[in-house]
Design brief:
TTHA0802/YceI-like_sf, signal, globular, about 10% helix, about 45% strand, Lipocalin, about 210 residues, mainly beta
């Protein structure tokens, strides 16, 4: 059965609001980073970073719970400001970056957690192991334009994981008791995103024939 023009227009009018507030964003690697902290010798925290953070966010401001995020960290960029330690962290004892060069996160659920706060649950894949984790997110911030006309938004996400859950079990026992490297790791993601052009406003492809 063919749909009348009037019916088609009515359907589009009803459906339009569900798309009007959805937007696509790309993580800006040059202004985003991932930090971690883990206990060392049971007395202090060693902090490090991963750079070259990439990914995409589909944001629905009308219903934020319908939003999604996918992010990839470059494990080979691990930096704790100590070259020998960084080489050890890249080795098979820890991240084994030659075999597992990336760490990925893919959201499966977004829930409100208060004003400008979200709980984002998803699958974290690290060292070849995938486990569910929940990120506590502050943001996203309101839209703002930079000097070149790019629309930007940001967010900060934190979580805690056990590295042993991901097969990162290397350690050394201390004579006084305890171990050299703690199991719990605190992770913080500082993300800045740029808005992608709307498909409707993107330039049409030209026929080069």
């Amino acid at each position: 059965m063919k749909m009348s023009l009037k019916s088609a227009i009515t359907l589009l009018a009803v459906a339009a609001p569900s798309f009007a507030f959805a937007s696509a964003w790309e993580i800006d690697s040059s202004h985003s980073s991932a930090q971690f902290a883990v206990k060392h010798m049971m007395v202090s925290n060693v902090r490090g970073t991963f750079s070259n953070v990439k990914g995409n966010v589909n944001l629905d401001d009308k219903d934020i719970t319908k939003s999604t995020i996918e992010a990839t960290l470059d494990a080979t960029t691990i930096n704790t400001n100590e070259p020998k330690r960084d080489e050890h962290l890249k080795s098979p004892d820890f991240f084994d970056v030659a075999k597992f060069p990336t760490i990925t996160f893919k959201s499966t659920k977004v829930a409100k957690a208060g004003k400008d706060k979200l709980n984002v649950t998803g699958d974290l894949t690290m060292h070849g192991v995938t486990k569910p984790v929940t990120l506590a997110v502050e943001g996203p911030t309101p839209e703002t334009k930079d000097a070149w006309g790019n629309v930007r938004r940001g967010a900060v996400a934190t979580t805690k994981i056990k590295r042993s859950d991901f097969g990162l079990t290397w350690n050394k026992a201390l004579e006084a008791g305890g171990v050299a490297v703690g199991d719990e790791v605190t992770i913080t993601l500082d993300l800045e995103t740029t808005k992608k052009p709307d498909a409707a406003s993107a330039p049409a492809a030209t026929d080069k024939k």
